[in-house]
DNA sequence: ACCCTTGTTCGACAATAATCGAACAACGCC
DNA sequence: GGCGTTGTTCGATTATTGTCGAACAAGGGT
């Protein structure tokens, strides 16, 4: 089954904001904002792989990321263009902040 | 005691995002974005006054609003200038969305 | 002084969300 | 086929958060 990646316009903005309102997920988004595709395993932020998988699911279901299978890995990327079109300035504003103290 | 209204730069962005990631609070922010000062009681979004007071506290402590006493009321206003300076585009992006379905 | 209005605070409770280990699934490789 | 790697899912636990009613506090009338 494909991981369901909803249409961004179907997602209430509160869901998007809630997805971004977590330190671990924000670190993931920061990493993804560097560009390109990242394997799930490349995000090591001090949580178990179960927790990491959970956070990636939250991001995906909030419409923030897309995922595709590649061998035994899964490659994740930020839906930057769509996000910037629907919420101009949001990602920039969030990413402009320094790493949380 | 004065309600403590922190310096915006002291507040992790995740706190700001979490404050905005709630339907009731977002409706309050939308109303405040119309400009000017609003009495707490003017926000009737189907929750009790205890809950409303709680949400206003969350917004205040996240640095999104300022409150001043005026007689028996309290007047709340959005810290728009500061927010736009620190997070350019964030409020606009969030407020541009239509009322949640 | 009394009361009404406006908010806040205090438990308490319910719902949501973060976290983990363990079990499971899919893939590639030897 | 069997094994290691990479992720996901399940069930349980804990922490956080939204919600309310009731009690309280501060003001402004009259």
TrEMBL record, chains A, B:
CDD domains xref list: HTH_ARSR (cd00090)
Task: Enumerate the InterPro entries for this protein.
Answer: ArsR-like_HTH (IPR011991), HTH_ArsR_DNA-bd_dom (IPR001845), HTH_MetalResp_TranReg (IPR051081), WH-like_DNA-bd_sf (IPR036388), WH_DNA-bd_sf (IPR036390)
Signal sequence range: none
Q: Which UniProt keywords apply?
A: DNA-binding, Transcription, Transcription regulation
Keyword DNA repair applies? no
* Pfam families in the cross-refs: HTH_20
**Residue ranges constituting the HTH arsR-type domain according to the UniProt record:** 5-98
The entry lists its GO molecular-function terms as: DNA binding; DNA-binding transcription factor activity
Please identify the protein, giving its name as recorded. Transcriptional regulator
Q: Which organism is it from?
A: Micromonospora arborensis
